[in-house]
Amino acid sequence: MINEATVALRRTQAGRPTQSPILVGLRGVGKTVLLVKINELAEKEGFHAISVEAHEGKTLPELLAPGLRKTLISLSTVESAKELGRRGLRVFRSFLNSVKINVADVEVGITVSPESGTADSGDIESDLPDLMLAIGQAAKAAGRPVALLIDELQYLSESEFSALIMSIHKLNQRSLPVILVGAGLPQILGLAGTSKSYAERLFRFPVIGALDENDAVNAIVNPAREEGVGIELAAINQILALTERYPYFLQQWAHEAWNVAEGNHIRARDIAQAHNNAISVLDEGFFKVRFDRCTPSERKYMRALAELGSGIQRSGDIAQLLKVKTASVAPTRSSLIKKGMIYSPSHGDTAFTVPLFDQYMKRAIPRTK
Asked: CA 126: distance to chain centroid?
């Protein structure tokens, strides 16, 4: 993935069209870690890197505004891009007004008037592309490409995602040096398809999932070896089975195994205690923080999903277990999808976005009600 991102960045830098990578995967598979690495790589390649994490509490313009402001001010100081940089700041001021972000909340930094007739319609699908074009033109003149890195894309509204797609489309058409690198849960595939039909031409959607067996073994053994710690093959196999080879869980189980081991060798007998400790830590943090965001009806729905077992389940089967019609729980299902708790791999299917969450639900609510 890092090699592919490097190629995409360098093509963008050279003004060549490229498919922007958007990493897709469940919680705990390392998407955010990869985004951080790509951010570091972009900065080393001379990009202005703007990194944000979407969430339910802020709109896309509110998230992007501080980073875009900083980038435009920087570009406007480059001799070859002064005029285009200052124009970008005027367009930025128009954009702030159009999306009703308080200018005092995002101080432009220098006195500029809005660019009348540009990025001021109040329609984000029109205004964000206008702004990104102005930034792209200034970036090209300055010889300083721009990378937008957005995590948790699934929290964007359909219109916001569409505005991003339109922006990248127009930038590519004009060979301007701006790239979007994103990450999110599997539902962004549906969001992209719904937003604009040509999204598949603009983006690549590499799936980040559980590690293959060799990589998972190396993720356990190599860090231990660096610390002078050995681990039995039987212990490794137990960890692989318990964690289903998801990176976040591999790290947690290996950490707990080292904590309970005697001396500098982890044995198979240590894994049972390590498993209990890892589950306790995850239940009180990683799992519980997500569980606590859900309403009683949403928890009841998730408990029914868990009762059907791990993996993908039919939405109709969940409703049947709850003894209600599928349509009656559709709003609850939609709410859980928006919260990033579940996703729909295909029409009528439902699955958790968090690995091992079905097991947690059975511990959190021992019996269905």
From this structure: 24
Q: What is the residue-averaged pLDDT of the chain? A: 90
pLDDT at 103: 46
SS3 153: helix
* 68 and 145 both lie in a single domain: yes
Rounded distance, CA 309 to CA 231, Å? 31
d(CA 260, CA 258): 6
Whole-number percent of the chain with pLDDT over 70: 95
Six-digit token pair at 13?
């830098």
**Count of domains for the chain:** 3
- Cα separation values, 295 from 267, 290, 362, 367, Å: 42, 11, 17, 17
Domain of residue 200, CATH code: 3.40.50.300
pLDDT digits (tens, 9 = 90+) for 88-112: 999 999 998 888 765 455 555 556 7
Provide the domain limits for residue 230: 213-290
Examine the domain organization and report whether 298 and 286 are in the same domain: no
Q: Are 182 and 147 in contact (CB under 8 A)?
A: no
User: Mind listing the pLDDT tens digit for each residue in 215-261?
Assistant: 999 999 999 899 899 999 999 999 999 999 999 999 999 999 999 99
* Cα distance between residue 356 and residue 336, in whole Å: 17
Q: Is residue 344's pLDDT more than 80?
A: yes
In a domain, 320, yes or no: yes
- Of 204, 239, 264, the residue that ends a domain is 204
**What SS3 state is found at 353?**
coil
Report which of 87, 80, 102, 193 is spatially closest to residue 134, judged by C-alpha positions. 87
Q: Average pLDDT, stretch 337-357?
A: 91
- Measuring CA to CA, how many Å separate 334 from each of 189, 236, 331, 342, 343? 16, 39, 5, 9, 9
Residues 17 and 124 placed together within one structural domain of the fold:
yes
| Residue 167, SS3 per DSSP | helix
φ, ψ dihedrals at 29, nearest 5° = -100, 0
Q: How far apart are CA 173 and CA 157, in angstroms?
A: 25
The DSSP string of 288-309 is HHHHTTS-HHHHHHHHHHHHT-
% of the chain at pLDDT higher than 90: 73
